[in-house]
Amino acid sequence: MIEKKTVCQIVDEWLEGKDYFLVEVAISPDDKIVVEIDHKDGVWIEDCVELSRFVESKLSREDEDYELEVGSAGIGQPFKVLQQYINHVGKEVEVLTKDGRKLAGVLKEADERRFVVTIQKKVKEEGAKRPKLVDEDLEFTYENIKYTKYLISFK
């Protein structure tokens, strides 16, 4: 069986000097290798083909038969690495907390320990006839959420 560590080293070698970053490498028991990369401006198919050929040039099909799939992290998929959070600062995201709350807001900041999302909440001020929308920053740790993903909007 091909080791994940080996594939990660090969991908890291290809990534050197490029603005792409590795999101995930998954290898199934039957040696199907899935490599996900991302880039702040999106992933080009030509670069996926180039990475695929690079990985194939480093692995021997004579030693191990495998299937290789190289692609980008899907736009509607949950974030898997910190760099995805950093790349989406200032954009709308959806967060599902472990206690089942689903929130939508703008990703304000992110670091290794936590991230902050600005949501809009209706607040009725004393003496006012109608509630008004007020921004509220909510802080999350990565352990307290099920997922965060880019919120696709067709407005």
SSE order, one letter for each helix or strand: HEEHEHEEEEE
Number of helices: 3
Provide the gyration radius in Å: 20 Å
> How would you sum up the global shape?
elongated
What is the number of beta strands?
8
Taking the alpha carbons of the first and last residues, their distance comes to 47 Å
Features:
alpha+beta; three-stranded mixed sheet; 3 helices; 39% strand
Can you describe what's shown?
The protein is of the alpha+beta class and 155 residues long. Helix content is 21%, strand content 39%. The chain has three helices and eight strands, in the order αββαβαβββββ. It has helices spanning 4-15, 45-58, 82-87, and strands at residues 21-27, 32-38, 67-72, 92-97, 102-110, 114-123, 132-141, 145-150. The strands form two sheets. It has a five-stranded antiparallel sheet. Strands 1-2-3 form a three-stranded mixed sheet, with helices on one face. Helix 1 (4-15) crosses helix 2 (45-58). The chain is elongated and about 80 Å long. It starts with a helix and ends in a 5-residue tail after the last strand. The model has no long low-confidence stretch (mean pLDDT 93).
A few lines on this structure:
With 155 residues, the protein is α+β, with helices and mostly antiparallel strands.
SSE topology sketch:
Elements: H1 4-15, E1 21-27, E2 32-38, H2 45-58, E3 67-72, H3 82-87, E4 92-97, E5 102-110, E6 114-123, E7 132-141, E8 145-150
Parallel strand pairs: 2-3
Antiparallel strand pairs: 1-2, 4-5, 4-8, 5-6, 6-7
Helix pairs in contact: 1-2
